[in-house]
Write a structure and sequence with these properties.
- This protein has 382 residues and is α/β, with parallel strands linked by helices.
- Helices cover 30% and strands 29% of the residues.
- It has three domains: 100 residues, 3-Layer(aba) Sandwich (Rossmann fold); 182 residues, Distorted Sandwich (Hnrnp arginine n-methyltransferase1), CATH 2.70.160; 51 residues.
- Strands 6, 7, 8, 10, 11 and 12 form a six-stranded antiparallel β-sheet that branches. A five-stranded parallel β-sheet has the order 3-2-1-4-5, sandwiched between helices. Strands 9-13-14-15 form a four-stranded antiparallel β-sheet, with no helix packed on it.
- Strand 1, helix 3 and strand 2 form a beta-alpha-beta unit.
């Protein structure tokens, strides 16, 4: 979830803002209705009004929407923007819109529920002749040589400290992706366009690709780099490729478990898959190198996953086992009581008073009970 500082970085990015301003100016006709999906601080919604939109539905699930409301009012646009604090898939608009604006990608388009949210909004909220900004994203991959960055990741776990072996931590950093914007001279292969997402037709949130990359020059491969080339509308693009001006969307580096010496003319077979679980993606990547190993050994190959980059204590794993028989904690009993009172007939202060009366040992102050009940209400109320 972005905070105000991150939203400010997005607004301050001249490359991003120039592209979106141009796309809006060319897409919005006087009297248009617009949906700003993930409005944040409301900048895109206000720009849509400036370019002629009659009405904008600005949807944002976080409390930063209050800044959007205040900013719109300060600019005399509050009457033309309908702010909705909610997850977009729970929103029902009174009409279909002519244009959907969305910019909730990260270093790659597959970020959180970005894809399902667009699919849902397109199906339920976009007019038959409507358009989406962005139109499409093309995702590229290349083998990269990143000696310094790779060393920074692995050195703490490969260097003994006063005789201590810290190597257990290494597999976690090497089974995670990392954000970096290297120069184009760090690529060992030509960029390969392995996926294209057309937001007017896309249905699946799965990222999937298997392809072969040809090594262009001798070097040491440390992993693969992924980035996107986005077309907001035909002729207006935004890109986070190596060597291009840096934007808030940094490319993603997927490291290999060890550096591999590569020669020009060799090939590497790459496999990529990203699956959305809840609101997060689990990525799997593999590499298979063409030459046999020493003494007839099979070719070198790696298979990695961000699932293996997530440290999980044995107690945590045991709690997810299908045969676990959970027992409600004290806090769970308190929550169950509060949720049972949330039937629309009791005010929060009444619920808090009953919470204190029933669980006085845990809630010695009314303020503690009210805060506990309010947090549950904010999370679960309609």
């Amino acid at each position: 979830m972005y905070g105000i500082v991150e939203f400010g970085v997005m607004v301050d990015d001249s490359v991003r803002m120039r592209a979106y301003r141009q796309a809006l100016a060319l897409s919005i006709k006087p009297g248009s209705t617009v949906l700003d999906l993930g409005t944040g601080t409301g900048v895109m919604a206000m720009l849509a009004c400036k370019h002629g939109a009659e009405r904008v539905y600005a949807v944002e699930p976080s409390d930063v929407i209050q800044i959007a409301r205040e900013t719109a009012a300060a600019n005399g646009l509050g009457e033309r923007i309908v702010f909705i604090k909610e997850i977009s898939t729970r929103v029902a608009l009174p009409e279909r819109v002519d244009l959907i604006i969305e910019d909730v990608r990260g270093g790659l388009p597959w970020l959180g529920t970005h894809i399902p949210d667009i699919v849902d909004a397109r199906r339920r909220m976009l007019a038959p002749s409507g358009r989406i900004i962005s139109t499409n994203d093309t995702v590229f991959c290349a083998v990269v040589e990143l000696e310094d960055f790779y060393g920074k990741l692995t050195r703490p776990w490969r260097t003994p400290l006063e005789g201590l072996d810290l190597s257990a931590g290494e597999r976690y950093v090497l089974n995670a992706y990392h954000r970096i914007h290297p120069g184009a001279d760090r690529l060992l292969t030509h960029p390969y366009a392995w996926a294209k997402l057309d937001y007017m037709t896309i249905e699946s949130s799965v990222a999937l690709g298997d392809f072969r990359l040809e090594i262009e020059r001798d070097g040491v491969g440390h992993g693969i780099l992924l980035w996107f080339d986005g077309e907001l509308i035909p002729g207006v693009k935004i890109c986070n490729a190596p060597g291009q001006p840096q934007t808030p969307y940094e490319p993603l580096f997927f490291p290999w478990p060890k550096p591999v010496a590569l020669r020009g003319g060799e090939s590497v077979e790459i496999g990529l898959r990203g699956d959305l679980h809840g609101v997060k993606y689990v990525w799997t990547w593999s590499a298979r190198f063409g030459l046999p190993g020493a003494n007839g050994a099979p070719p070198l190959g790696f298979r990695q996953s961000t699932f293996l980059g997530l440290p999980l204590a044995v107690e945590t794993i045991a709690g997810y086992a299908p045969d676990t028989r959970p027992i409600l904690s004290d806090s769970g009993h308190h929550a169950r009581f509060v949720l049972g009172c949330m039937d629309g007939n009791m005010a929060l202060e009444e619920i808090a008073a009953q919470l204190v009366a029933r669980f006085r040992g845990h809630f010695p102050r009314m303020q503690d009970a009210l805060e506990f009940a309010s947090n549950l209400s904010a999370k679960y109320r309609k």
